[in-house]
Amino acid sequence: MATTAQPMSSLPSGAGICTTAPDILYLPELVFGGLVWILVASTRVEPANPLAWVMFVSIFCFVMTFLWMVIFACGGHKNSYGWAAADFAYHFLAVIFYLSAGVVLAYITMGIKPAVSISPLFRIYQIDISAVVFAFATTLLYFIHAILSIIRWKNF
């Protein structure tokens, strides 16, 4: 049985993005980033400005990761060196964005901790804790993707 394994120096396209090391992380990044977006949107937006940054990061990274995945799946990258560099640059930017959003969200969540667990704020507090966990998990996924992308870029 012959296999059509691509060398490390080529960029995948089509269904190949579901089998290569960095690109298999697109779907978990979308799921975890979408969960951050949903969880932050489902709570009260207070204070509005820092949570607006978290919403911007989660929506921006969700949309860009989806577009990036579609470009790779459709073969729009034409297997060029520039796309490998851009893949690393985008994922590194996403790491910085999500790390900053996770820290802001964690700080805000610590500030709203209710004194009593039967308080109406306790449910919002629990949702915000979930959002913080998913924000840092998404940061880790983007970080792993960035590391694997730079390795692929250097081996291109």
UniProtKB/TrEMBL annotation:
Coiled coil: none
Alphabetical list of Pfam families matching this protein: MARVEL (PF01284)
Membrane topology, record value: Multi-pass membrane protein
Keyword Membrane tagged: yes
Alphabetical keyword list: Membrane, Transmembrane, Transmembrane helix
One GO cellular component term noted in the UniProt record for this chain: membrane
GO BP: myelination
InterPro entries xref list: MAL, Marvel, MARVEL-CKLF_proteins
Primary location group: membrane
Molecular-function GO terms, alphabetical: structural constituent of myelin sheath
MARVEL domain location: 17-154
Chain ranges passing through the membrane: 24-45, 51-76, 88-109, 129-151
Cellular compartment(s): Membrane
Name of the featured protein: Mal, T cell differentiation protein b
Organism: Neogobius melanostomus
Biological classification of the source: Eukaryota, Metazoa, Chordata, Craniata, Vertebrata
